[in-house]
Amino acid sequence: MADRVGSGLTSVRVRGSAFVTDVGLHSLMTAASSLQHVHLEDLRKTSRGEFLAVLLEKCTQLQTLHLSDMPLLNWGPCKLASSRWAERSITKLHVRGVNLDSGFGMILEKLPKLVELEIDGPSRNIKSAAEKCPLLHRVSYQVTHRQYLDEVLAALMNVRQLKVLELIVKNFTLCTEQLRVIGMLPLMEIRLDSFIYKQQPTLSRSSYSHVDNDGVKALVDSVCNRWCAMGTDMQPLKLSLCGATALTHDAVSALLRLPILTELDIGGCCRIIAMDKMRLVAKVRAGREMLESGRSPTMRNLRFPGLIL
Q1: Residue 64 backbone dihedrals phi, psi, to 5 degrees
Q2: Any residues with CB less than 8 A from the CB of 35 and at least 6 apart, and which?
Q3: How far apart are CA 266 and CA 288, in angstroms?
Q4: Which residues contact 236 (CB under 8 A, 6 or more apart)?
Q5: In 3D, which of 32, 54, 38 has the Cα closest to residue 95?
Q6: Across 92-99, average pLDDT
Q7: Residue 132 neighbours by CB under 8 Å, 6+ apart
Q8: What are the beta bridge partners of residue 37?
Q9: How crowded is residue 11: how many other Cβ atoms within 10 Å of its Cβ?
Q10: Which residues have a Cβ under 8 Å from the Cβ of 282 and sit 6 or more positions away?
């Protein structure tokens, strides 16, 4: 099949196939050197990554690479081969559940045009991306350790183009200091979602929450203080707190202080009552109307960050 396809193939998508082998993928990548988009998912038992080196070496026009749920991948040969590569043109990279170690930064160093990164594993890899990928606009990180997150946030402070940050939090609660640092980043979209909610959004787990009321207050205070200190036009903010089951009226009161909120996702926040949800709906509607009208609100009262007059 690889020979029949030839160099005209530009996109490949494979999900959950028991008939796809490393040999087949290797042959395909070798024959289809014009590939621009590759999406491989849930090849848990069939792929060990023998195709990776040829994919990244031969497919020089590759722009989007999505690899997920392939836990047997061996990145060793690929990292070894990366020393021979010139810079690659990949702009979007998704690598989750693919057995990453702290040496994946060797590959990220070859991706200076990278704009979007979705990743898990050691924090060192995001530190490498922050140093070597100056165009990074969006980062999505599935994080399992509080220490990893501290290191990631410190690295992201130096990414000038970063506008979208998604954290998928697994097995711990974000502390107020971490949320304060997130609020300091010049972001237009913040997604702080629970890993459990992402896996099963319809299943309620009220005993677990990755964000609490104090954390939301710290985030809002930090966002408002940053805007006050910058003295520039405020940017609209999109926010997601999915699966934060501990949030109550106190968190809602804090969210209402955000200057321009144009999107809010509180799916799975089961303790927020209907009346408070209506207040948040009104807040988002007002933010969208302000954005559409072209009006520019200003912070006039530094004693009450977030208050628009």
Answers
A1: -125, 125
A2: 9, 10, 11, 12, 29, 55, 59, 61, 62
A3: 18
A4: 188, 260, 261, 262, 287, 291
A5: 38
A6: 97
A7: 105, 108, 109, 111, 112
A8: 11, 64
A9: 12
A10: none
Q: Which residue ranges form the domains of the chain, and what is each CATH number?
A: 1-162 (3.80.10.10), 170-281 (no CATH)
239, amino acid identity: L
Q: What confidence tens digit (pLDDT) does each residue in 221-230 have?
A: 999 998 887 7
CB 150 within 8 A of CB 179: no
pLDDT for res 201: 83
Say yes or no to pLDDT of 87 above 80: yes
Q: Which residue has the tokens 């890899």?
A: 125
Per-residue tokens: 14: 């494979």
CA distance 271 to 138: 30
Q: Give the type of residue at 202.
A: T
In terms of DSSP H, where are the helices of the chain? 2-5, 22-31, 52-58, 76-81, 105-108, 124-132, 146-156, 176-184, 195-199, 213-230, 249-255, 274-293
**CA dist., res. 45 & res. 253, Å (int):** 49
pTM of the model: 0.91
Task: Give the model confidence (pLDDT) of 36-59 as tens digits.
Answer: 999 999 998 888 999 999 999 999
Whole-number Å distance between alpha carbons of 111 and 92: 10
Q: Enumerate the β-bridge partners of residue 193.
A: 168
- CA 211/CA 251 separation, integer angstroms: 10
Burial 112-136 (b: 16+ CB within 10 A, else e): eebbbbbbbbbbbbbbbbbebbeeb
CB atoms within 10 A of CB 26: 17
Rounded to 5 degrees, φ, ψ at 296 are: -120, 100
